[in-house]
Specification:
The chain has helices spanning about 1-20, 115-120, and strands at about 35-40, 45, 55-60, 65, 70-75, 80-85, 85-90, 95-105, 105-110, 125-130, 140, 150, 160-165, 170-175, 180-185, 185-190, 205. With about 210 residues, it is mainly beta. It has two domains: about 35-120, no CATH class; about 120-205, no CATH class. The strands form four sheets. The chain has a five-stranded antiparallel beta sheet, with no helix packed on it. A hairpin with a 2-residue loop joins strand 6 (about 80-85) and strand 7 (about 85-90). Residues about 1-20 have low confidence and may be disordered.
Length: about 210
């Protein structure tokens, strides 16, 4: 019973340290569950589909279903949005952004380069996994330059179940697991359930 009570206290402390406000939305509105999208002449993706549109696609989870209720394509992404006719998705498992391009009766998937991600999210500082120190797995930055951090995986590493935690800093999380807004300096860990092992190392952000 004491152990359970102690665990609850620790969890409450961590939550109080981490969340300096409500969860923030990303700049581009997410395509919601049950929303429909279509293409404009088979080129650009749009959300305002006409009743006479030859084909619309219904979002269900990470998948889009065609009019005949069959899966047309699977994005493997949790956050999906349209920007200037481009369908973009984010994978929390790999910390990567992808573009889904319509081609005839298929949809191609392409990983975005870090500079492309930066151009999409100009108010964020994009930090690549390769930017972290090889020796300490840490990365130092000045939040006065940009308090909003967006982690991008430019390796083959899997980041399933990774999230941000801290004991002395403060930040506001976004709806995707690789983005935060830092409000108080300190050390922030990006880890899988707080572990720091050879197979699942943490990545440390040091703010000043």
């Amino acid at each position: 019973m004491k152990l359970k009570y102690y665990t609850i206290l620790v969890c409450c402390f961590l939550c109080a340290s981490v969340f300096a406000g409500e969860i923030k939305q990303m700049p581009y509105p997410d395509i919601k569950e049950g929303d429909k999208i279509c293409t404009d002449k088979g080129i650009n993706w749009i959300t305002k589909c006409r009743k006479d549109s030859p084909e619309t696609f219904l979002r269900t989870g990470s998948e889009f279903y065609s009019n005949d209720k069959n899966i047309f394509f699977n994005t493997d992404c949790s956050y999906l949005f349209i920007n200037k006719g481009r369908l973009i998705g984010y994978s929390p498992e790999f910390l990567k952004f992808y573009e889904f391009e319509p081609k005839e009766n298929q949809v191609s998937k392409r990983e975005l380069f870090p500079d492309e991600v930066q151009s999409l999210f100009r108010n964020f500082k994009v930090v690549k996994i390769s930017d972290f120190s090889d020796k300490t797995n840490s990365y130092r930055f000045d939040k006065s330059d940009s308090p909003r951090i967006l982690l991008i995986n430019d390796t083959d590493r899997n980041f399933s179940n990774y999230s941000f935690t801290t004991n002395n800093a403060k930040f506001t999380p976004y709806i995707i697991n690789n983005a935060i807004n830092v409000t108080k300096d300190g050390m922030i860990q990006f880890s899988r359930f707080g572990d720091n092992t050879k197979t699942s190392p943490w990545f440390v952000l040091l703010t000043k």
